[in-house]
Write a structure and sequence with these properties.
With 164 residues, the chain is mostly beta strands. It contains 1 helix and 13 strands, in the order E-E-H-E-E-E-E-E-E-E-E-E-E-E.
């Protein structure tokens, strides 16, 4: 069994960067201490950046606990200022789309916790797309899943299309 605890100073951060807007350092925690039903990581977002696009989960619920810094939470098409000590709930459902933006001048650091059910289905309202992710526990980089489909919401076909 893994040691059931870890200190923040022992974590290894993995960089994620895409374009001019998205940048973060993410340190997985759950697998290091033996968690299986909840996933958690520490995420650090530099000033002026965001870690992920505005999105909603149709399977897994998320919670964020702000450890350091300040920013803006966009949640359900509303915005709120966030700061150290805030706890954020992101329930399942398209109406609970969310995104965290670091609007401060120093790094925004938070603990992210989620349920770990798969497959996960994500909805991206701003870009009008969806994603289905399976074959790995939730929380991996999107490209690491065994099955990953990301498509336009308009790309669907009729349920019986192609059937005889």
């Amino acid at each position: 069994m893994n040691k059931p605890l870890i200190n923040l100073s022992e974590l290894t951060y993995q960089p994620r960067h895409f374009g001019k807007t998205f940048e973060a350092q993410i340190a997985p925690v759950a697998p290091l201490i033996g968690a299986s039903k909840l996933g958690y990581n520490i995420t650090i977002i530099p000033a002026g950046k965001r870690a992920y696009p505005y999105h909603a989960h149709l399977v897994n619920e998320e919670m964020f606990f702000i450890l350091e810094g300040e920013g803006t939470l966009r949640h359900s098409d509303q915005t709120w200022p966030i700061k150290q000590g805030d706890i954020i709930c992101c329930p399942v459902g398209q109406e609970h789309a969310h995104e965290i933006l670091n609007t401060g001048t120093v790094d925004l650091k938070f603990l992210a916790v989620s349920t770990m059910q798969e497959p996960e289905v994500g909805i991206y309202p701003d870009s009008k797309k969806f994603g289905v992710f399976a074959g790995k526990a939730p929380g991996h980089t999107h490209k690491d899943y065994d099955l990953r489909i990301i498509a336009s919401l308009a790309a669907g076909v009729d349920y019986y299309e192609g059937e005889e």
